[in-house]
Amino acid sequence: MTMHPALAVCAAGMLLVSCGSGHDSGTPLYKDPSQPVEKRVDDLLSRMTLDEKIGQLNQRSSWGGESATGYFSKEIEAGNIGSLLNVDPVSADSLQRVAVEKSRLGIPVLLSRDVIHGYRTIFPIPLGQAATFDTALVAQGARIAAVEASADGIRWTFSPMIDISRDARWGRIAESFGEDVWLTRQMGRAMVRGYQGDAGNDSTSMAACAKHFVGYGASESGRDYNSTFIPERQLREVYLAPFEDVCREGAMTYMSSFNDNDGIPASGNRHVLTDILRGEWGFDGFVVSDWASVAEMINHGYCADRKDAARTGFNAGVDMEMESGTYIENMKALIDEGAVKMDDIDRSVASVLRIKFLLGLFDNPYITTPQDVLYAPEHLAAARQAAAESAILLKNADETLPLKEGMTILLTGPMADAPHDQMGTWVFDGQKDHTVTLLDAFKDQWGGRVKVIYEPGLAYSRDTETSGIDCAVAAARGADAIVAVVGEEAILSGEAHSMADLNLVGAQSELIGRLAKTGKPLVTVVMAGRPLTIGKEVEESDAVLYSFHPGTMGGPALADILMGEISPSGRTPVTFAKTVGQLPMYYSHKNTGRPAAGTEVLIDDIELEAGQTSLGCTSFWLDAGFGPLFPFGYGLTYGDFRYSNVKTDKNAYGKDDTIHASAVLTNSGKREATEVVQLYVRDLVGSVTRPVKELKEFRRVTLAPGESVTVDFDLPVSELAFYGQDMQRNVEAGEFTLGIGPDSDTELSCSFTVK
Ligand code: GLC
Description:
Layout: H1 5-18, H2 37-47, H3 50-56, E1 58-61, H4 66-69, H5 71-77, E2 83-85, H6 89-102, E3 110-113, H7 126-131, H8 135-150, E4 156-157, H9 181-196, E5 209-213, H10 232-248, E6 253-256, E7 260-261, E8 264-265, H11 270-280, E9 286-288, H12 306-316, E10 321-322, H13 326-336, H14 342-358, H15 377-390, E11 392-396, E12 408-412, H16 438-444, E13 451-455, H17 467-476, E14 481-487, H18 508-516, E15 522-528, H19 535-540, E16 543-548, H20 554-562, E17 641-648, E18 652-653, E19 658-667, E20 673-683, E21 694-703, E22 708-716, E23 722-723, E24 729-730, E25 734-741, E26 750-754
Parallel strand pairs: 1-2, 1-10, 2-3, 3-4, 5-6, 6-9, 12-13, 12-14, 14-15, 15-16, 18-26
Antiparallel strand pairs: 7-8, 11-16, 17-19, 19-22, 20-21, 20-25, 23-24, 25-26
Helix pairs in contact: 2-14, 3-13, 5-6, 8-9, 8-15, 9-10, 12-13, 15-20, 16-20, 17-18
C-alpha cells in the first residue's frame, strides 16, 4: 500500500516523533505509538472481525440523541460505528471513552461536524473569504476553526467546499469560493492546511473533507440537487481541478456529491471515485458519502433497492456511508455473494484507520483543548480582519465614502442589526449573542464620534410591511448621510435554498428607492449569501459596499470601512449578473464564433419593424446586452491604483520554462490602500476552444499614497496546459496574450509564444 505523498508526510512526522525502540510485545503493535502508521494499520486490521470492519464504514448522526437514549454508546461499544456527526459537546468525550475503553479493540470514533466557516467564532461565509483573495487569512481562519472545534471533541470537518459555482440561483454558492478555478484551487489548499495543521502531533488538527465530489455546482438551472451534464473535458478542466490540488495538499477525506452527472450519481461513479481519485491522483485517505447519498441512488433510479445501493456505492469507491445505513445492513451478504470483495473492504477500512492514526486519535483520543479558546480575543480579531478584507466596494460616487466624524448618520435596513442572519448559512455553533452588528459597532465604537439615528425600516429581509419605511424616510431629514443595510436572511442561501429571482426580497428595493429620493447621500450595504441583481439599487445609491454574510465580527469590520479606518480591498469572487436570465455567467467563457462587439442595439433602441438581420448576429441578450453588472475580480479601494509597464521577460518560451511577468503599480490616491493585482492569460488557438481569459496569479499589494512598486509574477508554462482532443493534459505551442490588472476586464496587453 503506497501512501499518498502528502499523507506520507504526516505519517513520517509521526514516525520521526516516535521512532526508536522496537515493539514492546506486552501491548498490541497497533497500540504502540513508536511504530510506523502503516504497520499499526496492518496489525489492527489483522485483528478485526468482519463485523468490526464493516462498523468502521458506518457513520451515524447523533443530533444530541445520545444523552436521551444511550443508543450510540451501545452501538459504539459493539463496534458498529466508525464515525459520528453532530454529537452534542457534552457527550463527545464520554462516547469516545466508550469506543476506546469498552469496545473490543479500542478503536476511537471519529467525531465530525460541518465546521464550514468557523466553529463558535464565525468567519465570513466561504464566498466572502474568497473575496479577500488572501490565502494566508483563509488558512488562519481554518486553523482557528479547528482549534475551537477540537475543544468540543470534533476532529473532522466537512470542509472545504470547493465546488466551482457559476450560477447564483444555487443557494450553495454561498459555501463555495465562487466561479474561478485558480482562486478556488488556492483557497481550497489554504483551508486544508489550516484545518489539518500539524496532523498527528497536534490534538487541534482536524481532518479536512474536500466536497462535493464532483460537479455539484453545475446543478441545472441552479436548483439544488438537480442533475448536471458536464462533459469529461470540462469536468477535468473546471470541476476536478481544485480537488486534484487539495489531494496534493494532503486532504485526508473526500465527500461524494448528491448530483447525477450525465446519468451517473456521484456516489456510484467509479470512474471519478476510483479511477481518477485513487488511480490517477494516488489518494489513500477515505471517501465519505454525502448525507444518505448512497441510499438516494434508489431515488435516482440508478439502484433497485438498499442492497443494490450498498453494492454500487461501495464498489464505486465510497468507503464510509453517512447516515443511510445500507452498508451495515447489507455488506456481509454482499461479501458472501461475492458482490463485494474482501480485499476492497480491507482497503477501505485501512483508509479509515489510517486517518484515525494520522490524527493521533489512538494515542490522544480525548479532548485536551481548553474551553477558553472559544471566542478567544485573537480569534475575534482574525474574524474581524477577514470580514473587513471580504467587503467589496462596488461604487463610491463623489467619494461619498468614507463618512466623516461628527456626521449624523441614519442607520436603516433589516440587516443593520441582524445578529443571527449576519453569520450566514451553515452555522450550527456560532451564537448570535456574540455577533457584533453594524448598529452595535456604530453605538459602541463610534458613538462618541458620530450621531446615529437607527430606524430599521423593515423588520427582516422578506418583510413587506412598509410602514417602517415611512419612519426611516422621515428620520433621513435629520441626517447628513444614510447607511441602508439590506440583503438576505441567512436561510435564503445554503443547502436546498435556491432562488429563481435574485432581486432584493421583500420591500427592500422600495426602501432604497424612497431613501434615494430624500436626496441625502445614500450608502447601501448588502449582506447576502450570493451576488444579487442589484442594478437598480446601485443606480439609486451613491456608494455600495457588498458583504457576503460577514460573520460574528461583521459589524465592526464594516463600520471601520464606512468610517475610513480601513480601506476596502475585497474583490468579486463571482460575476455579478445584471439579471438572473444571464445565468450561468462567468468571465472565463469561450469566445464563440460570434462574440459580442459591444455595439449591439438593445431593446429600447430597436426601430419598429426592424429587419430580421438588422441587429447584428452576435452573442448577446436584447434586453441585457452582453456584459455583467460587475465582473469577476472587481472592487474599488480608497486609493487610486494605476498600472504601467506590464511586460513579460521574453516573447517566446519553451514548455518547461517559467514566464516572468511584471507590472508597475502606483497608488496615485490620497491614502494607503490595498490592491489585488491579478494576472490573466489567453491561449489564442488550441486543439479545442479555449477561454477568453483565465486567472493565473493574484497578489495583495498595499501602497502608501504616491508609492510605486514593481509586482512580479512567475508563471510556469506548464500552468497553460489543458485537455486536448486526445483528453491528454498538455501545453500546446502557439500564441498567447497576458495582462496584469485590477479585475477580469483587464486588457491582455502582452503577447508571447510557446514553442
Ligand atoms: C449535507 C451537505 C453536506 C454536509 C453533510 C453533513 O446534506 O450536503 O455538505 O457536510 O450533509 O451535514
